[in-house]
From TrEMBL:
Pathway: Lipid metabolism; prostaglandin biosynthesis. SUPFAM superfamilies: GST C-terminal domain-like, Thioredoxin-like. It comes from the Eukaryota. Its EC number is 5.3.99.3. Residues 20-97 form the GST N-terminal domain. It is a single-pass membrane protein. One of its GO terms (molecular function) is prostaglandin-E synthase activity. Keywords: Fatty acid biosynthesis, Fatty acid metabolism, Isomerase, Lipid biosynthesis, Lipid metabolism, Membrane, Prostaglandin biosynthesis, Prostaglandin metabolism, Transmembrane, Transmembrane helix. Belongs to the GST superfamily. GO terms for cellular component: endomembrane system; mitochondrion. Coiled coil: none annotated. InterPro entries: GLR_AS (IPR011767), Glutathione-S-Trfase_C_sf (IPR036282), Glutathione_S-Trfase (IPR040079), Glutathione_S-Trfase_N (IPR004045), PGES2 (IPR034334), PGES2_C (IPR034335), Thioredoxin-like_sf (IPR036249). This is Prostaglandin E synthase 2.
Length: 249
């Protein structure tokens, strides 16, 4: 696929439909936050980022919703990553129905119903992988020096045991096998197309890409690319989404 074709797949909205101010309250490594960022980056919607301290959450004390992501659009609070993507899509494409295509809606739901559930058991699969993940989280998160030191080891230990519970809850006996199966299931859904949306990514493409983006450079993500056919699609998505449209606060 020619690079120019991928570049032309971006869909910036009309300037008159762009929000005046967009602020994302997030954790850098959160897959749900990365879903929202994939949407904003792909559509070239400028946004500011407030990195939330996951221990104190002082940055979102003003909100009754004590989770991330929170997207504030021209003063209006939007919550839940999937609802945020649908809301923003309706704002910038008012002439189109959101998730009108049955296939797109099915795979958009699949991300929340299945894909995200195989991630934690993989990135916290072993104590060493849990430490690897929390090293990334603490380096990119909003932590004080002391919090960074203690959270890396305490958080890794906690999430290692949480992942054990998730494995049992979702009946996952082979973590990597479940991840590889999910990746291949997605590639099969593409059915030879560059994107599920055809020549351009749709909301399902952006949701899958968003939740996978934070694990790309972890052991789980590297193993996934090496052992499945998802690598080429991920490269196409990287090019299609392009650079971050984040602006400094």
């Amino acid at each position: 696929m020619a690079l120019v074709t991928v570049a032309e797949s971006k869909e910036p909205p009309s300037r008159d439909l762009l929000p005046k101010e967009v602020v994302l309250y997030q954790y850098e490594a959160c897959p749900f936050c990365n879903k929202v960022k994939a949407f904003l980056d792909y559509h070239d919607i400028p946004y500011k980022v407030v990195e939330v301290n996951p221990l104190s959450k002082k940055e979102i004390k003003w909100s009754e919703y004590q989770k991330v992501p929170i997207l504030v659009v021209d003063g209006e609070q939007l919550i839940n990553s999937s609802d945020i993507m649908k809301n923003m899509s309706s704002r910038i494409h008012p002439e189109s129905s959101v998730l009108a295509a049955e296939e797109e809606a099915k795979w958009f739901r699949w991300v929340d119903d299945h894909l995200v559930h195989v991630l934690s058991p993989n990135i916290y699969r072993t104590t060493s992988e849990a430490l690897e993940s929390f090293d990334y989280i603490t380096k990119n998160g909003n932590f004080t020096w002391l919090e960074r030191c203690t959270s890396k080891y305490a958080g890794a230990a906690i999430m290692y045991f949480v992942s054990m519970k998730l494995k049992k809850k979702y009946n996952i006996t082979d973590e990597r096998g479940a991840l590889y199966e999910a990746a291949e299931t997605w590639i099969k859904a593409l059915d030879g197309r560059d994107f599920l949306g055809g020549s351009r990514p749709n909301l399902a493409d952006l949701a899958v890409f968003g939740v996978l983006r934070p694990i790309r450079h972890l052991s789980a993500g590297k193993d996934m690319v090496q052992n499945t056919g998802i690598g080429e699609w991920l490269q196409r998505m990287e090019l299609a989404v392009g650079g971050s449209s984040r602006v400094e606060s």
